[in-house]
Amino acid sequence: MFTRLSIILCIILMDTRPSPVYGQNSKSKAETQNSLGEGAAAALSIAERADREIFFEANIRPILVDKCVKCHNDQKTSGGLKLLSHQNILKGGDNGPAIVPGNSNKSLISLAIGRKSEEIAPMPPKESLAKNQIQDLNRWINDGAIWPDSVSKLISNSTQMKLEAGR
Ligand code: HEC
Residues lining ligand 1, CB < 6 A? Predict the structure, then answer.
């Protein structure tokens, strides 16, 4: 809660503070940002990064928590894959990194949720994600798969133990 608030505060500050770049010449903020380059994660402005962190919290984290981590956690690592942290996802499972940031076409998670790959099993195994959930995950990957630094693990160890006990 606190981090989400501070992200929002940060955006408000960014937008209202008189800035030498936006204030003194006639370039709009959008034009200035476009001239920085095509969405490379390294060139993200603070506001863009904050936007993507909010997108992660609102759309991506709930999908991973509700639909994926019960089979991809510290205790149960189906396919050799944990999906609890940014590190876990970049490291991947038996077939290598689960995502290629910026490229959903090459990302195993996208292949898995797309359910059309011959190499990667459909995920979740039984029931497809909703169309908008698939779109959100692909958008998140294509936008650089931004993961807030404050989220070291999606669910706590004790929640994992409960998942384990519930099976
Ligand atoms: C009911 C358990 C279960 C759920 C839920 C589940 N998976 Fe899996 N997942 C598996 C199993 C089992 C494998 C190994 C399949 C195989 O090798 O044939 C796997 C493999 C994968 C792989 C391939 C890993 C590799 O390197 O080979 C990816 C990517 C993946 N899952 C992503 C997801 C995502 C994303 C979700 C949520 C949308 C999800 N899974 C939900 C059981 C699950």
Answer: 67-68, 70-72, 78-81, 92-95, 98, 108-109, 112-113, 120-121, 123-125, 129
